Amino acid sequence: MSGDGGTTGHVFIATSLDGFIARRDGGIDWLLDRDDPAEDHGYPAFIATMDAMIMGRGSFEVALGFDPWPYDLPVLVLSRSLPPTRVPPSLAGRLRIADLSPQAAMHRLQAEGHRRIYVDGGRIVQSFLRGGLIADMVVTVAPVLLGQGRRLFGETGRDIALTLLGARSFPSGLVQSSYRLDA
Fold this sequence. Notes:
Helices cover 20% and strands 31% of the residues. With 183 residues, it is of the alpha/beta class. The chain has a single domain (4-181), classed as Dihydrofolate Reductase, subunit A (3-Layer(aba) Sandwich), CATH 3.40.430.
């Protein structure tokens, strides 16, 4: 659940009822259409407790489409295919791209003094779960069936026990569950 030195990974993510975090092309319009600014889903409070973020290439490419860039945290993009030079000039010093394993990424951030790491993106979340590097997850389910797309969870290679910390529903139809991963 943590890297050496107490560095921990944390997930805050949304999925369709059938378990997809994005369409095949990476689109998240189905989620943005359900975003009601009057509802507080807890993201600002969650992000305020994080000191760095790790995301995958797919999440990075989606985030590049937002104006302005949505993250104030230092961001480490894990990718085997993107070169480190792919960082847009406007994000220099705020974003890095590296080909690292989940364990190596957590060790790097821990060495830099980061303790609470926001982990985002389907394949990245899956690899961090397999590596035992996630302490807790907030999963918000949208009332929509996509039928296909990019799955949140994949094969884990083992059972991963969770403890439900709480659940709540919103007038928009979103249902949010918080879990602690058991050791």
